Amino acid sequence: MKKLIDQEKVIKNMAGRLVKNNFFKFLFFLATVFGLIVLVVLLYRIFTQAIGWLDIDFLQNFASRRPEEAGIKAALIGSLWLMVIVAPLSLILGVGTAIYLEEYAKKNRFTDFIQTNISNLAGVPSIVFGLLGLTVFVRGMELGRSVMAAGLTMSLLVLPVIVVAAQEAIRAVPNQLREASYGMGATKWQTIYRVVLPAAIPGILTGSILALSRAIGETAPLVVIGIPTFIAYLPKSIFDTFTVMPMQIYNWTGRPQEEFQHVAAAGIVVLLFVLILMNSIAVFIRNKFQKRF
Amino acid sequence: MKNFKFLALSAMMGSVLAFATACGNNAEDTNENKDKNQAAEQLEGEVKMDGSSTVFPIMEAAAEEYMAEQPGVKVSVGQSGTGGGFEKFTKGETDFSNASRPIKDEEKQAAASGGIEFQELQIAYDGLSVVVNKENDWVDHLTIDELKKMWIEDGKVKKWSDIRPGWPDEEIKFFSPGHDSGTFDYFDEVILDGAELVKNAQLSEDDNVLVQGVAGDKNAIGYFGYAYYLENKDKLKVVPIDGGNGPVEPTNETIQSGEYTPLSRPLFTYVNTKSLKEKPQVYDYAKFILENAGDFAEEVGYVRLPQEKYDEQLKTLEGLK
Question: Is the CATH number of domain A58-292 1.10.3720.10?
Answer without folding.
Answer: yes
